[in-house]
Amino acid sequence: MRHLIDPLDFSVEEIDSLLALAGDIAADRTRYAGLCRGKKLATLFYEPSTRTRLSFEAAMLNLGGSVLGFSSADSSSAAKGESIADTIRVISCYADICAMRHPKEGAPLRAARYAGIPVINAGDGGHQHPTQTLTDLMTIRRRKGRLGNLTIGLCGDLKFGRTVHSLIKSLARYEGIRFLLISPEELRVPDYVINEILRPKGIPFEEVTSLEESMPQLDILYMTRVQKERFFNEEDYIRLKDTYILTPAKMSLGKPDMAVLHPLPRVNEITLEVDDDPRAAYFEQAQNGVYVRMALILTLLGLAPQQKEV
Ligand code: NCD
Fold first, then answer.
1. Which tens digit of pLDDT belongs to each residue from 208-261?
2. Which residue's CA is minimally distant from atom 11 of ligand 1?
């Protein structure tokens, strides 16, 4: 049985075929409409979510399956003190596959050890968010036609942003990748990202503070929200939350074929005027999230039709 807990759980070849399947689904969703008939997806969300939970649900419904689950820890037996191990054993009797979001790093990994069904990590604390990464990769591939030979600027909360950690981990497997890590001092990427991923692989990266100076170099700009819920004190959050605000003036410094991604939700970090710029790719990214999750559910359930390599 396969799970998706870490972005590296799938090989580059497997990601290629998953993205090819997602692309096929995007081109003609109706062809996939009945493939999960009779199957159930459980969404176990111990932390708030809009996009991730609803896009998983939409994905399963699009495939003709059904969904069940909970959207906060208070409405599950966790509130009564049930362990993850017990919860997942029980859910395995009710559903065919599950997506779990949890504030504790490593919770979905623990669940996978006890599960009788595939477990998908839908975000664990400030750690990883592999399905957002699939969404990001699909968006980059569709916008730029490739996943290698790109200069990628990641901007904002690089410390607590799990989408950033997963995206760096994944992109580090492609040739010709260079990162500009744009953040305030206090919100730089965790040491392990540098010492265990970037340095050992010899990937060029710079840690910088200026978005303006970085703009002209970027093929992709990945904006992120300052992760309020992971701060220990409110004062620091208030001081740092508006460090970067992407405006049309800053966009004018970027390449004409740059793409701007954001995992959403956006707070203040991209002004609404930027939405009209053709380089803004974040709503398209949200749409791609449904296609990659459809492809992922089919793959983990062993129901994916044979795919040609892209
Ligand atoms: C992200 C997350 O939950 O980590 N949201 C999402 O899944 N699209 C990003 C965020 O909350 O800032």
1. 999 999 999 999 999 999 999 888 899 999 999 999 999 999 999 999 999 999
2. 265
Catalytic residue among 2, 29, 51, 89: 51
Does the CB atom of residue 262 touch ligand 1 within 6 A? no
Architecture of the CATH domain 130-284? 3-Layer(aba) Sandwich (3.40)
Q: Which of 105, 129, 133, 138 to mutate to test the pocket of ligand 1 (most atoms within 8 A of CB)?
A: 129
Biggest CA pair distance of the chain: 54
Q: What ligand 1 atom has the least distance to the C-alpha of 224?
A: 12
Mean pLDDT, residues 285-310: 89
Q: Which two tokens stand for residue 265?
A: 């939700």
**pLDDT grade, residue 307 (50/70/90)?**
low
Whether 29 is a known active-site residue: answer no
User: Which atom of ligand 1 is found nearest the CA of 162?
Assistant: 4
Contact call for residues 63 and 41 (beta carbons, < 8 A): no
- CATH code given to domain 7-128+287-300: 3.40.50.1370
Dist. CA 256–CA 262, nearest whole Å: 18
Q: Is 52 a catalytic residue?
A: yes
Catalytic residue among 129, 165, 169, 241: 129
**Considering only CA atoms, which residue is closest to atom 7 of ligand 1?**
52
Task: State yes or no: pLDDT of 308 exceeds 70.
Answer: no
Beta carbon of 299 within 6 Å of any ligand 1 atom: no
Q: Where are the domains of the chain?
A: 7-128+287-300, 130-284
Is the pTM for the entire model greater than 0.85? yes
